[in-house]
Amino acid sequence: DIVMTQSPNSLAVSLGERATINCKSSQSVFWTSNNLNYLAWYQQKGGQPPKVLFYWASTRQSGVPDRFSGSGSGTDFTLTISSLQAEDAAVYYCQQYYSLPLTFGGGTRVEI
Amino acid sequence: EAQVAESGGGLVQPGGSLRISCVASGFPMSGHWMGWVRQAPGRGPEWVATIKRDGSETMYVDSVKGRFTISRDNAQNSVFLEMNSLRAEDTAVYHCVTLQNTNYGWFDPWGQGTRVTVSS
To answer: CB A95 to CB B111 under 8 A?
Structure first.
C-alpha cells in the first residue's frame, strides 16, 4: 500500500499570510507513460464532505480560487494558499490514485 | 449539478448487517465508476470499495473483503453497499463518491454521508 504522510498536522496562519502543506508518498505516484502525477488534494470544512481542490497534483478544480496552488512530483507534493482568507480554515487531505488501495494522508488542519 | 445522496445508516450490533444506498442525480451515473469512502470520527477518509460502470468489476480495501459487497443499478441511478459481520471499527460516516478518471481516480462529487454505528 502507498502510505501518504502529511505535514504539519496543523498550522495557524494569520489572515493574508501564506500557508504551505506538504504531502509525501511512500513510493512515486508519477506515471511515466503519460507524465502525470496521480495525486489529488481535498478541503474539508466542519460537518461537510471533502471537496476536491486539485487533481493530477496541480490541475485546479473549477471554482477553486487561484490563491490555492498545487505542486510537486514523484513523492513530494505541496498545497499552497498564497493569502489565507477566513473561509480557508479547514482540514486538507492529499490522496493518491496511482494504485489500489486508494489512500489518503492523515490531514492538515489550517486555523486562522 | 451533479449530486449523490446516501441513506440507510444506523445503529447495528457487532456481527450484524446493514445495507446503505446512494442515489445520483444531475449526471448519468452509468458513465462513471462509483464507490464508497468512509470517515471514522476524528479520522481521515478511507477508501472502502469501487464498482465499474457496468457492475462487472468490484474492488475493496482488505479490511472489508469478504464482508462488504458493492453493487449498482444504473436504471435507478443507485449504488449500494451491503455490510455483513460488522465490527466496531466499521463505525464511520459512509460517503458515496463518484470516481473521476476510471477506478484510479479522485472523488467528485461526495455525498453528505450516512452514519453507521456498530455497538452493543
So the answer is: no
